[in-house]
Design a protein that fits this description.
alpha/beta; 17% strand; 300 residues; 7-stranded parallel sheet; globular; 5-stranded parallel sheet
Length: 300
């Protein structure tokens, strides 16, 4: 088969696919060019950069060759997946591969916010030594609210409990048997009210952002907020207002409403620790993603 990987593919996975006799092309295409390229592909593999919308899917249908779209990662909101499935094109993702990587980044952002790691390091490189300006807070003994308690949320929860934190979780699905004295499910309003840290792990939400002015107002004063899910789940203007007013102590952000983000007021805020959507960017996660992609293609 001809496999088109528009956002790249792990080298070990490419080697294995080629050893199986497949042809693998790694090349990013703008939309108009992608519409032509998919006509010649049996499988399209994307990450987050490539958007597979209806015009691209229609072009693939016209080509009568594309059998499957694979998202190397968790969310599939950059693919019009229901439309693709309705046209006979399967859509798959790799939800297990990056859970630990994203959970560890979320935890890292919690530490960075609590101890001013990002901003303190930046000012030191400018020749400043502002030791007294960076009095932080500890994670031990605090309550972390995890919104979205799927694979990533649970992976973060286990790490937080190991550090002596209490976990409250909100999710529309409750996994049986995992609640204990240090972890319990609560309603969203309760989570917002009691949490010292809040970490967001939901899929992309249609309609208004979940973290908006109304829900921020329900949070504890001085809360630390982390988002490694999707940028459009957060009203960035409301978030910035909360940081400026002191309602929110700090925010750790890996995802943004627009990527690459041009919201320099947010990116340059001294209470923001930010990364450019690198949740799954570990050597281990990339190998796992590659392996899952190979197994999915083998099943075709």
């Amino acid at each position: 088969m001809r496999i088109l990987a528009t956002d790249g593919i792990e080298k070990g996975a490419r080697a294995e696919l080629e050893a199986l006799g497949h042809v693998v092309e790694e090349k990013f295409y703008e939309v108009e060019d992608l519409k032509e390229a998919v006509k010649l592909a049996d499988v399209l593999v994307v990450r987050s950069a490539t958007k597979v919308r209806k015009p691209v899917i229609d072009a693939a249908v016209e080509g009568k060759q594309l059998k499957m779209i694979i998202r190397g990662g968790v969310g599939i909101d950059n693919i019009d997946h229901e439309y693709a499935e309705s046209k006979g094109i399967k859509v798959r993702n790799t939800p297990k591969a990056s859970s630990d990587a994203v959970a560890e980044l979320a935890l890292g952002l919690m530490f960075s916010c609590a101890r001013h790691i990002s901003h303190a390091g930046h000012t030191m490189r400018e020749g400043q030594w502002e030791k007294k300006a960076y009095k932080g807070v500890e994670l031990m003994g605090k309550t972390v609210g995890i919104i979205g308690y799927g694979r990533i949320g649970q992976a973060l929860g286990r790490r937080c409990i190991a550090m002596g934190m209490k976990v409250v979780a909100y999710d529309i699905f409750h996994v049986e048997g995992i609640e204990n004295e240090n972890m319990k499910y609560v309603e969203l309003d309760e989570l917002l009210k009691v949490s010292d840290f809040i970490s967001l792990h939901t899929p992309a939400i249609d309609g208004k952002p979940l973290i908006n002015e109304e829900n921020i107002a329900k949070m504890k004063d001085g809360v630390i907020f982390v988002n490694t899910s999707r940028g459009n789940n957060v009203d960035e203007a409301a978030l910035l207002n909360a940081l400026n007013s002191g309602k929110m102590y700090a925010a750790g952000l890996d995802v943004f409403a627009e990527e690459p983000s041009k919201n320099m007021d947010l990116l340059n805020h001294p209470r923001v620790s930010c990364t450019p959507h690198i949740g799954a960017q570990t050597a281990e996660a990339q190998k796992r993603i590659g392996k899952e992609i190979v197994e999915i293609i083998k099943s075709l």
